[in-house]
Write a structure and sequence with these properties.
single chain, alpha+beta, Aminopeptidase, three-stranded antiparallel β-sheet, 7 strands
Length: 159
Amino acid sequence: MRIEYLGDNAALIPTLAQWHYEQWRYLFPNTTIERYIARLHSYLDKKRIPTTFVALTGGILMGSSGLVSYDMDTRMDLSPWLSILYVSPIFRGRGVGSALVHRVIKEVEALGVETLYVFTPEREQFYRRLGWSTVERTEYRGYEVSIMARDITPPHLAA
């Protein structure tokens, strides 16, 4: 498995947009597939926020993760966020999601970020196993979600 910038794999945007649309349209019912495509086109930067990563094996797309300034319009006081973590069902349970999370953490370490956030309606235990802690549980767009944080240790201070 390789994890690369989406910017180096922009041809994957239509597939990713479809996956993301199907996964999260319940939270954003008025958003179209075209908006997902446009958003991914705006996440092609490298070594800055926003950016997107893709996991690949043998040229096959396995999943994605992203780094954005804001992911919840109700919590603009928190930044930045791990976003669009998605693993294709055929690749789940193989460590792809964990690897994608770690790649975002590596990126924010290099950017000097001290705290990274994520919100999840159902994967709190997954993130907890990766060192995240729950900041709060709240309602977002009609669904119960957990907002979680991960303290980031700068590479020069890591043991």
